[in-house]
Amino acid sequence: MTSWIPRLPLPVPLLTAAVVAGLLAGCDSDDASEPTQVPSSSGRPLVDAKCVHVEHAGRELGVTVPAGFTVATPPASSAEIRETYRVNLLSLAERPEDGRTLPTAMLAVYGYGPGEREGQNALELSVLNFKQATGGSSRGEPISATPTTVAGLPGSAGTDTDPMALDYNSTDAADSRLRWWTLSPDDGLFIVTLATTTPDLDEQYAAEIPAGLRPGGC
């Protein structure tokens, strides 16, 4: 088992006001695409959802982002994160809510190709970076995932709870739920991560997000 990696300091640009503003205003050219409806595993459609195309090292993935999320592909801080932590943050989506500084849900996609991070090492560092992006705590617990099928491909899925993720400036009694999925198209690796602040949001997106992944792109 890979040893646990100590929490690293959060790269400032990921949570600065400028980046948040950029996310609110900076959806890429996918904004002009037609709304997409994709059946979820629970049988409910993702009404007015949008397929966001991500690509890394020639590997492509379509990620169906639910309505109400702002999207940055890639995020403004991705180059600094890659240089500092050697993780490839390809896309970041957030669900804002009036009256809250932080979003109520966050979705991030990481990707790796030949010669880059792989397997457990890629999973641990990507999820750790995501936890930092949400303002989550590091409790020294290893990050794990159970083998499963994701979007028709061999992959894995894991989950955790965190008392501070997306809640560090408006804490409540409920822990936020974090989830992650891995899938490996054409010897590449994509890691899709999700954080939500309420059980209702977790129940909804935990079914919709993996059901809306499209190997090969949108």
UniProtKB/TrEMBL annotation:
Keywords: Signal. Residues 134-164 are annotated as: Disordered. It comes from the Bacteria. Residues 1-25 form the signal peptide. This is DUF3558 domain-containing protein.
